């Protein structure tokens, strides 16, 4: 019973941390939603953005549980804010930021893609929760207070954020490796296809040349044979029997 009570207590702590995490996220979203155009562009193009922006929810600053209508409203607001037409003094960077926002929005419009993104976020949260439990378990075993830095909602949020970003980055690296492998295989298959086609072409050309030169070879052989026979007859006509020397009688 004590063990069951301990598990229930741990689950309650986990649920509380999760709720605090999303409460903190919403507060940050509310704060960041009032960023100026320049600040949003800077956020979307900051150093390391190629990995930060793999998380579409991070790009759009929206809760993974947001409805489609909320997603659409957020996209409109953010896309207008970073649109090149609104940032004439920085159109190149604004265009890049707009493309990042547009890509994230289109990804979340696809049910399968959105599910994958949500699964990554949940996996990041579950991983941190598991690590927190392991830390507390070890502290309890060592007879120490079971206080960890992730008990602080802000630290928990940061841990989930870092782990989620890491998972998105790992998936992207695997995707690129898979894409590079497929490209290499396609290139090799194409090279083999070209080589096979060249081989067939060479064989056809050889056969064509052979057929075209066959009559010439036959005529040459016949001429050679005819000349040989003529020469043989000629040699026979001039062939004389050897003279026999008569013996003189005494």
TrEMBL record:
Where are stretches of biased composition, namely Basic residues?
228-237
**Superkingdom of the organism of origin:** Eukaryota
Stored PROSITE patterns? DNAJ_2
User: Where is composition skewed (Basic and acidic residues) in this entry?
Assistant: 178-220
Region (Disordered), start-end ranges: 135-154, 178-250
InterPro entries, A to Z: DnaJ_domain (IPR001623), DNAJC8 (IPR042858), J_dom_sf (IPR036869)
- Pfam families to which the protein is assigned, alphabetical: DnaJ (PF00226)
Where the record annotates domain J, the positions are 55-122
Q: Which CDD domains match?
A: DnaJ
Looking up SUPFAM superfamilies in the UniProt record yields:
Chaperone J-domain
Q: Can you name this protein?
A: DnaJ (Hsp40), subfamily C, member 8
Q: Which gene is the coding source of this polypeptide chain?
A: DNAJC8
